[in-house]
Amino acid sequence: MKFLEESLVALDIEVSQPEEAIREAGKLLLNLELIEQQYIEAMVASFQKNGPYFVLAPKIALPHARPEDGVAEAAVSLIRLNEPVRFGHASNDPVQLVFALAASSSEEHLQVLQKLMQLLGDENNVSKLLSAKSYQEINQLIGGNG
Questions:
Q1: Domain extents for the chain?
Q2: How far apart are the first and last CA of the chain?
Q3: CB 72 within 8 A of CB 106
Q4: CB of 122 closer than 8 Å to CB of 60
Q5: Of 1, 10, 90, 122, which sits with the fewest C-beta atoms within 10 Å of its C-beta?
Q6: Of 75, 80, 79, which is closest to residue 33 (Cα–Cα)?
Q7: Tens digits of residue pLDDT in 77-102
Q8: Rounded to whole angstroms, how far apart are CA atoms 108 and 126?
Q9: Where does 2-141 sit in CATH, by number?
Q10: Quick check: helix, strand or coil at residue 77?
């Protein structure tokens, strides 16, 4: 599993629409060939069809699609938006941290989510993710080994 490695994290990305944010987070996975292009389109389509169901906490979105939409390896990427974007969630908007999840099975999906919840379950960690100046600061939060 590739979890928030340096090549999977991008800070202060400029987007104006939720779909752009999803695509940018997905691109990090695509660049490493962890997913296929169709996975990004599936994440966007899922958002357009089902709304912001993956905006799970204030400022945090976890877009994902199904394994059969083109996952090569379980992975999580993160983009931090320069300016928060409204995804249309009643209580958790606007979003500033977008974690794209890719898993090739339900079991992997749960493992990936558990890792993320350990990180995001601590509000101090969320604050640090929002204020980190570099990948090194984020790497310290996640224990340095991805």
A1: 2-141
A2: 8
A3: no
A4: no
A5: 90
A6: 75
A7: 999 999 999 999 999 999 999 999 99
A8: 23
A9: 3.40.930.10
A10: strand
